[in-house]
Amino acid sequence: MPPAALAPVPPVAVRPPGRTRALLGIALGYFMVLLDTTVLAVAEPDLARSLGSSTAGLQWTVTGYSVAFGALLLSAGAAADRFGAHRAFRFGIAAFGVGSLLSALAPNLWTLVLLRAVLGVAAAACVPASMAMITRLYPDPAERAGAVAVWSAVSGCAMAFGPIVGGVLVDLAGWRAVFLVNVPIAAVVLALSAGTVVHCERGARVIDWWAQLAACTTLALLTDVLIALGSGARVHAGWSGAATLAAGSAFVLRERRSPAPVLQAAVLQARGMRSILLAGAAVNFTMLGVLFVLPLLLQQTLHLSPTLAGAAFLPMTLPPGFNPLLTGRIVARVGPWKPTTGGLALLTVGTLTFAAAVWDGTSYPLLAVGLLLSGFGVSFALPALVTAVISTAPQGSAGAAGGLLNAVRQVGATFGVAVMGAFVSVGAGGSDHGTALALLLPAGGCALAGLLIVRQQRGQQAHR
Q1: What's the confidence (pLDDT) of residue 351?
Q2: Does residue 4 sit within a domain?
Q3: Would you put residue 267 in left (φ > 0), alpha (ψ -120 to 50) or beta?
Q4: Nearest-CA neighbor of 226 among 373, 67, 74?
Q5: pLDDT by residue (tens digit) across 92-118?
Q6: Residue among 420, 383, 112, 447 nearest 294 (CA)
Q7: pTM
Q8: Which of 132, 197, 249, 360 is the one with CA 20 to 30 A from 42?
Q9: CATH of the domain at 28
Q10: Does residue 343 register a pLDDT over 90?
Q11: Is the four-CA dihedral 360, 317, 413, 179 of positive or negative sign?
């Protein structure tokens, strides 16, 4: 009897060996980059005492990182395509590890500020390259969605652990330990991301380095203007303001003639895009501004140790660790706009609560309520904004729009530290009223962004 005909067996997708290990390395690299934005927060008073820093000096230790990170994000994706994403990622991770080691050994404040800028450059090299590597590892859209969820969830863990890890390290060994922790993490990331499984081909994208340099210079000078005004150095601010105008003009002229402009006009002109970018800037203005101001308040006014000050941030830092999963389901059901405006509303109320808690004498229970509201606000708004920017971007420009959103968020973080820091001072003489006024600023920014999005949505519905 002839053998029965066998039904054809569908081919089984072959998973490249080492893929899970590589994804773990990429996610851990993202964790390290994001950890560095929060872990330094509770180290500020110890750093100020050790290096004799003023508030302006502390502001530069934070903004030196975010200026370079934010400005270079605009072209880092193009650089990853040009040279190969795996090369850009591994270069960024190695530079981050070496830069962190040198930061821990910094002999003075301005050396530390310079090294923080180096860390910002390294971070910008890592983040866009991470997404390209994940796309290479997971070509199937369904599998890729799960991988991106893992990669994104890491950011919530970094938010949650950053202030606590920073506080414990400062208590144990001082502020320098905050940077030393990155060195072994970078070594582990390089080991996990090694191998041909993550190799990405080189491309032919053109990068206008002169336009990128002009963008970085403009942002750095504008930050210097804000910090100088806050410290009362009006002459310094005037000279920096004039230099800012010159650098900004050079950037605009270069952009008009550039074959590869840093900012894509089609993305900026898309309906609703500017409201989305303003909302992203407002969220990071609030988050990083609060992480700069409140640790000084908690340690100087409530006399908390660095470890307790880090733990005090848990109501704000825990929600981003789990709430984005809920936000994703809400966005899938009702779209990104309601979660975005809801998150901005929570941030507005949360920062108003901060100001009320500080105005008549710092009350931690009331601060904790504000922290909780802000934590949920961030975790509702940011995932929804990512979906909003991709859905709003013109066809074929989702990557550029996502990079622009991340860059604007870092610019917002820079301004949050520079502007809010102008209202507080280092030392026991810091004014609680000044801190309360500082905490009112992000409330206004979040409220304005939310109102503009609501107005935009009503306008779109009226034209349908």
Answers
A1: 92
A2: no
A3: alpha
A4: 67
A5: 999 999 999 999 999 998 899 999 999
A6: 420
A7: 0.78
A8: 360
A9: 1.20.1250.20
A10: yes
A11: positive
